[in-house]
Specification:
The structure holds two protein chains of two kinds.
Chain A (H helix, E strand, L loop, with lengths): L15 E2 L6 E2 L1 H18 L8 E5 L4 H16 L5 E8 L6 H15 L3 E5 H5 L3 H8 L4 H20 L3 E3 L4 H14 L2 H6 L4 E2 L6 E3 L7 H11 L14 H16 L3 H11 E3 L1 H6 L4 E2 L6 E2 L5 H11 L8 H9 L31
Chain B lengths: L40 E3 L2 E3 L1 H16 L18 E5 L4 H14 L5 E2 L3 E2 L10 E7 L11 H11 L4 E6 L6 H8 L8 E4 L6 E3 L7 H11 L3 H22 L2 E6 L3 H13 L6 H5 L1 E3 L13 E4 L7 H11 L16 H15 L3 H9 L2 E3 L3 E4 L6 E3 L2 H8 L9 H4 L14 H8 L14 E3 L2 H17 L10
Parallel strand pairs in B: 3-6, 3-10, 6-7, 10-12
Antiparallel strand pairs in B: 1-2, 4-5, 8-9, 8-16, 11-12, 14-15
The chains are: A alpha/beta, B alpha/beta.
Chain lengths: 356, 474
């Protein structure tokens, strides 16, 4: 039997079947369509302008490693004129993050990009190992997620960048759409499919892999022989999200277009205006200056609970009430340093970069 | 050796050695309504006794129906629909409970107000009630038909309601269509090829029977998901046409809260986010005007959308209702609908509020983009810019990369522009295991209402033909 020819160039031998389109194509065409689709996403959404300082949220995993590689490639190929940085957060998970950070450090050398690593220990005075030692494995993802979001913004402020790009892929976004519907998180549902989010007090964030299938990211890394770290977090027993992820994988197996179809659905609906009007207005945390829905932001609230030995304070109302009954926060309580947005981009800004 | 029941597993002192079971209620086992009786059922953490459960279900049912009876949408003391009532009956639990509640609340002497005497509603809000059953067994060769059984059940249990059986193949039956809608069709059939362009043409030879057309249509569908979605779509549209032919202002379906949550998630997973509101309730206006020249919308309501499957089951059990059972379609576990059902029912055990959260969240959403028409197959709104969106997110040909190609419209003999995103996916989206494209070469006959739409367009094109340049390719 003659080898199947690539459905795109019709010249070379097809060696893979694209999960996204079902087409059988050759390696070179796969690289071309993969990169061009990301470029199309970037240009359609007008994510960058020349001179932008852009931090890539780098964990050492497949998504951020491929993102760093593709961003560098596209920046050179299409002359975006942007300055790329790697920004990593060290959650302090022994046996997981320390190993993955080694990968990021190698990526720094391979892609010649400046790297900044910020640790939870430096920012909050707690590592995730210490958090888990206090609260147990249940709900620890709440702490990690809340702390990471702030940490990236704080890291971006240190780097004085005006944009963070993350490696969230199509599978992540589809999963988030389903999760937000099932949890009734209408505020997040309204914005989770946006390619770019920016509030008045936050640094612009975007997801160039919004329409890129996770499987294709793995394929790209595999064929390009990229160096990435592929171990699941040792503290990730988020059962509910785990159900949603397993469900999404089943849907993808039944019909691969399900992932893009869910994103399409998420983009096609919006939250009713009257519901939006009833939502809490965003304010600034009185303690750390970060954006918040309440007087205290979630990170400060969680941190206060940890410091005062009532770790469940950010998780349950009962714990919150218990802590409130004990009186106001004692003097000398360790708090997160006050957050300030970057002063503005400029080549003259000097930053301390890790080169180790 | 017997394994023994939990009660039998005891130590030497006769004490149970097993952990005490977790109570099914959170705080108290006393009914939350009357606060006297010991509860008999826990519904999402709330305890009800048997005597309070019945009014609870009736209240939920009426709340899900009565605000939508008067078409103006205004709350009125008098419920005044403009037409008759059609009820879609599948034989399943939901539609059995629905029929019982409709009869009890609006067509029996049970509802007597002690102060005001007999409730005027007992005369029936709708003058005439039609119960319609759609037979789906034709799609599967080994599935036995159930029309006779359902007919007997309706005639025995609800003798005052008219029973109308419909076959799924009626969706491909021109004579049925002309009788139901009066819309003209060509002698030949319009057929489409299930390729990415969904090209259609008028067949030279169209001697197939409706049953053959139906079976060819389902054989050509690319996935189990497509088969199941198409059955659901055809059932819904057939019911809407029957409702219209019976001059009904309302079509009621027995979709429970659980089923609604499943169809919402399943619909979203198939790209139906734009029609999320229609999934819960829709006003369907037939494309052809009615005899008196006025377009009258049939309102599809799901009055059990606040009553979960557990409550429906308990209601049917305590009321002693006979449930025929819904026909099970083969291959369900491989379809998105089947997987969603399995997922939601599994989740409901550990997280009982999930189904209610899903429906409440979806009720807070509206369609975002501009509506450009009504889908020729599922009869739901179509959003604009679908083609451009698809070209932008995935490159399917190297020629597509040019901006000129991105802006190009599909060819005029393509159904693409007449279909919603979800129906496009149903007809073209393949499974990861599909390699062969042989089936996509076959032309399959379109459902009669889709053909009617094409006839309409051809007639319009004929009228403006003299003014079109180069054949008027859109």
């Amino acid at each position: 039997m003659a080898p199947k020819l690539c459905a795109l160039c019709e010249k070379s031998r097809a060696i893979l079947k694209r999960p996204k389109t079902g087409q059988q194509i050759c390696k070179e065409c796969f690289f071309y369509v993969f990169e061009t689709e990301v470029h199309n996403t970037i240009t359609q959404a007008q994510l960058f302008k020349p001179g932008d300082r852009v931090a890539i949220g780098a964990s050492g995993g497949k998504d951020s490693t491929v993102l760093a590689y593709v961003m560098k490639t596209l920046n050179e190929r299409y002359d975006y004129g942007i300055h790329l940085y790697l920004l990593s957060i060290d959650e302090g998970i022994t046996g997981y993050r320390d190993d993955s950070l080694e990968t990021v450090k190698r990526n720094q050398q391979q892609y010649s990009m400046p790297l900044k690593i910020l640790s939870y220990n430096d920012l909050y005075g707690w590592t995730m190992d210490a958090v888990v030692a206090q609260i147990g494995k249940k709900n620890n993802c709440t702490f990690c997620g809340v702390f990471r979001r702030q940490a990236l913004d704080r890291g971006a402020a240190v780097l004085n960048v005006d944009h963070i790009v993350t490696g969230h892929n199509a599978d992540d976004i589809a999963e988030t759409v389903l999760m937000n519907i099932m949890r009734g998180d209408i505020a997040r549902l309204g914005r989770c499919t946006s390619i770019c989010t920016q509030g008045e007090d936050t640094i612009k964030r975007s997801k160039p892999f919004k329409y890129t299938y996770e499987k294709e990211i793995v394929m790209y890394a595999y064929f390009k022989k990229l160096d990435y770290f592929s171990t699941e977090c040792i503290y990730s027993p988020d059962a509910y999200r785990g159900h949603a992820r397993a469900f999404l994988k089943d849907l993808e197996a039944a019909r691969p277009s399900a992932i893009i179809d869910i994103i399409h659905s998420g983009e096609a609906f919006a939250v009713k205006e009257e519901v939006k009007a009833a939502q809490k207005a965003q304010q600034t945390c009185k303690r750390c200056g970060y954006m918040s829905s309440n007087e205290l932001c979630k990170a400060c609230s969680l941190l206060e609970g940890l410091e005062r030995g009532v770790a469940a304070v950010g998780i349950t109302d009962r714990a919150r009430k218990k802590m409130d009954a004990e009186g106001p926060a004692p003097e000398g309580l360790r708090t997160i340093p006050y957050f300030q947005m970057p002063a503005g981009p400029g080549p003259s800004t000097t930053i301390q970069i890790d080169t180790s | 050796m017997s394994c023994g029941t939990a009660a039998e597993i005891q130590n030497a002192q006769g004490e149970s050695v097993l952990m005490t079971k977790k109570p099914k209620y959170d705080r108290s086992n006393v009914c939350v309504k009357c606060k006297e009786n010991t509860g008999n059922i826990v519904i999402r953490h709330v305890v009800y006794c048997k005597s309070c459960f019945d009014p609870f279900v009736k209240h939920r049912f009426k709340k899900g129906l009565e605000p939508f009876i008067n078409i103006s949408g205004q709350k009125k003391a008098v419920l005044k629909p403009w037409g008759n009532l059609t009820i879609g009956f599948s034989g399943g639990l939901g539609s059995t409970v629905l029929l019982d509640l409709i009869t009890r609340c609006y067509y029996s002497s049970e509802e007597v107000d002690e102060k005001k005497g007999n409730n005027p509603r007992n005369d029936g809000i709708w003058k005439k009630v039609t119960v319609c059953y759609v037979e789906v067994s034709e799609v599967y060769s080994k599935m036995p038909g159930r029309t006779a059984e359902v007919r007997q059940f309706i005639q025995d249990s609800y003798p005052t309601f008219e029973f109308v059986p419909v076959r799924l193949s009626n969706a491909f039956d021109k004579r049925w269509w002309e009788r139901i809608s009066g819309g003209p069709l060509t002698k030949s059939d319009f057929a489409m090829r299930l390729d990415p362009d969904l090209a259609f043409k008028l067949l030279d030879d169209s001697s197939s029977t409706p049953l053959e057309s139906l079976q060819a249509y389902f054989r050509s569908l690319p996935t189990q998901t497509a088969v199941h979605s198409s059955i659901q779509t055809l059932i819904r549209v057939l019911l809407l046409h029957i409702a219209r032919s019976k001059n009904s202002s309302h079509l009621l379906l027995g979709t429970s809260l659980t089923s609604l949550a499943i169809s919402l998630i399943s619909g979203i997973s198939q790209g139906g986010g734009y029609n999320i509101r229609e999934e819960a309730q829709e006003d369907w206006t037939p494309s052809l005007t009615s005899g008196d020249g006025k377009e009258r919308a049939v309102r599809l309501v799901r009055p059990l959308r606040d009553v979960g499957v557990k409550e429906c089951g308990t209601y049917a059990w305590w009321r002693g209702l006979k449930v025929l059972g819904k026909a099970k379609w083969p291959g369900g576990r491989q379809s998105i609908g089947g997987l969603t059902k399995e997922f939601i029912l599994g989740l409901e055990k550990g997280y009982p509020s999930t189904v209610s959260t899903i429906t409440r969240t979806c009720a807070k959403l509206v369609s975002k983009d501009e509506l450009v028409g009504i889908c020729s197959i599922c009869q739901r709104p179509v959003q604009g810019g679908l083609d451009t969106w698809k070209s932008q997110i995935s490159i399917r040909s190297l020629a597509e990369v040019t901006p000129a190609r991105l802006a190009q419209d599909p060819p005029s003999n393509s159904l693409i522009s007449l279909l919603c995103y979800s129906c496009q996916g149903t007809l073209t989206s393949r499974s990861s295991k599909t390699i062969s494209t042989a089936e996509s070469e076959v032309m399959v006959t379109l459902p009669v209402w889709t053909q009617a739409k094409l006839v309409d367009r051809e007639r319009m094109k004929g009228e403006i033909q003299d003014f079109l340049i180069d054949g008027g390719n859109e």
